[in-house]
Amino acid sequence: MILHTLNALPDTPAFNDCLSLLSSQDSLLLLGDGVYGALPEPLTVLERSGVAICALKSDVAAAGLTDVLPAHIRQIDYDEFVVLTEKYPRQQAWY
Amino acid sequence: MSSNSGQTLVVLRHSPYGSGLSRSGIDAALAAGAFEQSVNVLFLGAGVLQLIPEQDASTIGSKNIGKNIASLPLYDIETFWVDAQATAKFGIDPQVLPPQARLLDRDALRTLMCNHQHLLSF
Fold it and tell me: How many residue pairs from chains A and B have C-beta atoms closer than 8 A?
């Protein structure tokens, strides 16, 4: 079980390396430039892995995507981010 | 594979001179080793470019990363785990890799990561 934090645009090496190592037992948190991964095309690719996906609310808002992201992508705040890090024994930062 | 598990896995995924990340990552591994922590290194994605032999970074006013990597075994880091898919993608002949290099496919990489308590990403 790995918490992946993805802070990279789609089609970058960090995005692609992350994608290739996702598993259905993992969680993926999109933050920084990573929030653009929740746009339709990259999201389809990420969801194929079966991973649970959420996005950092403040970064989503900064990108102007609050109302653009699909409802099933949970937008979490920093407190919920901390809860997530407690739930997963290890975290891999992709940037 | 006893050396396939441990406390900390330093994940090196950036090219050697594009940023300071590769040097910082190797330094972190050396520091952990110096304090006798159980630490392993994984060269993932573009990180495999750090292992290309005969680099001459003096031409760009930098120090070769290879010397730092070569000193890892002195700190009991005897195995360099390497992303096989990335070496193929970058056209790196496995024969030219350091003798400590062990190639892993993507499934084995995942297992390696899950066998460590902490992941440090550089």
Answer: 37
| pLDDT tens sequence across B39-49 | 999 999 999 99
Task: Report the run of H or E that residue B111 belongs to, with start and end.
Answer: helix B106-114
**pLDDT tens-digit profile of A10-36?**
999 999 999 999 999 999 999 999 999
Q: What is the average per-residue pLDDT within A39-49?
A: 96
HEC-encoded secondary structure of chain A? CEEEEECCCCCCHHHHHHHHHCCCCCEEEECHHHHHHHCHHHHHHHHCCCCEEEEEHHHHHHCCCCCCCCCCCEEECHHHHHHHHHHCCEEEEEC
Does residue B51 contact residue B97 with C-beta atoms inside 8 Å? yes
- By the CB < 8 Å criterion, does A24 face chain B? no
For B45, the closest of A2, A17, A23 (CB atoms) is A17
